[in-house]
Amino acid sequence: ASSFAVLLPLLRRALSDTAAGLAALHDAAFALVCLHAADRLPLSQDARAAQVDLLLGAMARGDRWQPPAAAALAELAPSLEPPTLDGLVDGALHAAAAATRLAAAAALARTPPLDPDSAARLAPRLWLLAHDDDAKCADAGAAAWAVLTSDGAAFDGGGDGGGGGAAGMPPDLEGRLLPFLEEPEQRVRAQAA
Description:
This protein is mainly α. It contains ten helices and no strands. The chain has helices spanning 2-16, 23-35, 45-61, 66-76, 86-94, 98-108, 116-129, 135-148, 173-177, 186-192. Helix 3 (45-61) packs antiparallel against helix 4 (66-76) and helix 5 packs parallel to helix 7. The longest helix is centred in the first third of the chain and has 17 residues, at 45-61. The protein is globular. The termini are far apart. Residues 152-167 have low confidence and may be disordered.
């Protein structure tokens, strides 16, 4: 496992190189990232965060890697601690492709429940996940909300695919969603509205 941490910069470089003729290198690097996704491996949270970034990046490159990357995200999710969840939450909220947002939100639903401070910090973004314009993403976001926050039972199910509503919203959350109305992405602004 410690050798994986040494390999991470090389894997990142290999996966980010877009030069033609490197398909075999890309495939090998991607396979190593997926191979080390098992939550039982004793990897640092920094290594786990790097894996999340690499897997989300691989999914953004095309459909070919989406199913194995989604499976790897789901496999490593139970090993993520609250500070490491930001990359996965951001992937579920900001990824351009619905398949990537769905994979990230589904992986979030496999992570351990959050402590109250972490739940409060992530609550606005988690709430937005359940109001994705893609119904499957919204359902996965609602599942993540229910698992990760203590308010899951109060959530209105938000997987309506149309922006939901404020029913079931924790009382302090509405004001914390206001900054998302300034997001550059129209989809995220609509989720916050």
